């Protein structure tokens, strides 16, 4: 075993004294005094080889023959002392990553729940607004002055008056283009009706009504049958837009198809622009 002074160790490892002292603290090594001179602090050649292996250092100068390389087991026995903090740190990082992933999943779930609630509130507001407009559209319309000049193709229509069979109730039959890509007929008394649009049953059903609402792909409106002392076969559409009432002749019951209803809805929708 050869004793090397602290300065010789710094020279062999090519590091400054401060760095070497830090390495000694990390490896839990301590300097010892020289056997013949108590003023000199030394390390053994085995300790120097251990430090070189731990920090991947190549000794800078040749050493005496007695400066033999220690057994691998001695160098490896020092490594777990340094690797233990690293392993604990990796475990903590893995736990933190798992916690972050859990928080992200919870945040995503809360965001989706808030979006659903906002969509429901928006849908409820739209339904309430639609009900208010429908209720306002149940009143007789006064012919709008200037409508004929602005829309030349619109026929002059008489003021719509509710006939005796009309019930003062905003729940009237509804024809709506549903999310399934087809028209749905809804009766306030019977619910959804299994009637195919533009079929003989469709025209017979329209002939039995006095009013209905239409919500199509291009717009919406309310419709009433004409009434001259008694109900007739003619239908008139009406809608309030920008605090003005508009009306338009639709046709007779046997000529009212879904295509004609969409044309009327698009006509009213043009006033929204």
Automatic annotation (TrEMBL):
Keywords of this entry: Coiled coil
Coiled-coil region(s): 86-132
Record's protein name: Uncharacterized protein
